[in-house]
Description:
The complex is a heterodimer of chains A (399) and B (241).
Chain A: H1 3-15, H2 18-54, E1 59-64, H3 68-73, H4 76-80, H5 85-92, E2 97-112, E3 115-124, H6 126-131, E4 136-139, H7 144-149, E5 153-157, H8 158-165, E6 176-179, E7 182-190, E8 203-207, H9 208-215, E9 222-227, H10 232-247, E10 254-256, H11 259-302, H12 304-312, H13 317-354, H14 362-388, H15 392-397
Parallel strand pairs in A: 3-8, 5-7
Antiparallel strand pairs in A: 1-9, 1-10, 2-3, 2-6, 2-9, 4-7, 5-8, 6-7
Chain B: E1 2-13, E2 16-28, E3 33-37, H1 44-51, E4 59-64, E5 67-68, H2 74-83, E6 85-88, H3 100-110, H4 115-128, H5 144-156, E7 162-166, H6 174-189, E8 193-197, H7 201-204, E9 209-214, E10 217-220, H8 227-240
Helix pairs in contact in B: 3-4, 3-5, 4-5, 5-6
Amino acid sequence: MNVMENIKMAISSLRAHKMRSLLTMLGIIIGVGSVIAVVAIGQGGEAVLKSQFAGEANTLSLFYMPTEEELQANDSRIYEDPFTQEDIELLMTIPEVKKVVASSTTSTNVRFREDQTDSAVVGMNHAYMDVYPLDIKEGRNLIAAEYLSGARVGIMTTNVVEELTGETEAPFVGEIVYVNGQPIEVVGVAEEETGLFSFGAKTIYVPMKTWQTIFAKKTITELSIQTETVDDLQIAGEKATALLNEKYKKEDAYQTLNMEEIAEGIGQVTRIMTIIISSIAGVSLLVGGIGVMNIMLVSVTERTREIGLRMSIGATRGQILFQFLVEAMTLTLIGGLIGIALGTGLSFVVSHFAGWPPLISLPVIIGGVLFSMLIGVVFGMLPANKAASLHPIDALRYE
Amino acid sequence: MIRLTDITKSYPVAGEALIVLDRINLHVEKGEFIAIMGPSGSGKSTLMNIIGCLDQPTSGTYELNGELISEYDDKQLAKIRNQSIGFVFQQFHLLPRMTALENVELPLIYAGVKKAERMRRAKEALAKVGLSDRMEHLPNELSGGQKQRVAIARAIVNEPDIILADEPTGALDSKTGKQIMELFTLLNEEGTTVIVVTHEAEVASYAKRTIFVRDGKVTSAERVVDQELLEKIVEKETFDS
Lengths: 399, 241
């Protein structure tokens, strides 16, 4: 008497009472489904939050935290523009670091013919463009030679063009604008940035060298490092800050966003949510399990004569016990599988409206399958035992 | 082959032992065709249950093929029921959701026979009872006689030593009942021991030996061939009880 025979028998007996089986599964379906959905939605949200902090494409920002004295001295040069070109080369020596993304940002006056406006001016290196590609609407991107030579060229976002010309669709490539009083040729127009932390800021992008010329500075405002994988980020960040602090003989002045602290904060929220949902799912599964036990007891009573017959043709008590356990397990397993399907569907729907990808994790699905089978075993034990302990003669004569 | 020695079966009822079988001694040879008769409450069903290994005696010994069955545990009894005994019941006891073929396969499943072999042997058994054309039918698509023949196929599929039939014609009309009894006769002629429990003289007349059970005792065990004589005995036994 193998397991497959038992499963076949179980399915045929469940199919004989389709409605009853489905209603019995409902508790399991809801329980497993809600766990799958909540975990998928939660993990999707967590991933979105983490990617916002870690930056897209595995980047990690470095920053300079001034000491109390430096703050009081009010020497803004130290902490406003804390990095140099040499720092980039130094950071490239770290094996985990793939690219060093550099940018300097200043807000300044931009003039085109008679019109003027204020805009952020971002000086950037070539790596910046690779990590944060611009959505070029018109014209072209900056090329490598322009980064190297510090050519007087730039890319504007559409809202700057709009401010300067009063039109949204005006062709602007080839025009000269004056940034901080210095001429820049516009070679491209890009869409405004969108994202969680972007506010549709007006921006002009120029090569880093050009920015340094325009503002007569040698320094860099922001540095971030990119690694091959997100797992290298933490260690690369630690190495980077150590190198910089050593170079400038500072104690913890150069820092990275502390990923662990952020992860801890997100984890806290996720844990609370998980506890709440788990308790709801737990109650649902408990009620579902009791439902299974109840219906299996009914089934054993209804099939008393069948049990007697099976015993009279040679079924041992163990085989009868196993048959009903498998039946209960099949019931909860099918319930669990339906729950997984529904939970997955639900998380896709919710994620679609929330705007982040659902993360259906394999361990959770496997856990759901195993747990629903476990419920079948636990709550099937009593009915199965009742069936197995019937006396064959009494069972055969049962009316 | 079957040797019952001083078999006693009693149930505790209201603090007292109700004796159902009282020191029964019975010997059945291989290949015999036996009818067990007796009024209801006589203990004939209990006797059949003990022979069929569905029940254990309170005291006494039961030997089957030289093995001491009365010492066996539940699991060993299940194996004997599976391998050595084929049951046929008054109410057929076919599983309603299974086809005739699947019902006949059932004992082989518990015997651990592989699917292909099971199919082959179940088809063979159904052919033997003349139901080759009804194999894929569900029990509720079969007539009473056909159902009982499926049950007989199920009883013989594992090639048991003994067929135990409890009122096998009780739910059938007399013509169908006759056919069923002829089938038992045929199986008996092929060497299978057949034991039929009945209260119908006509059924008992197929047997080569009839045993009367009354008040938990075997009161006569003579060979009855003559139909009229048998009926007289039955009448006498029935009026007496």
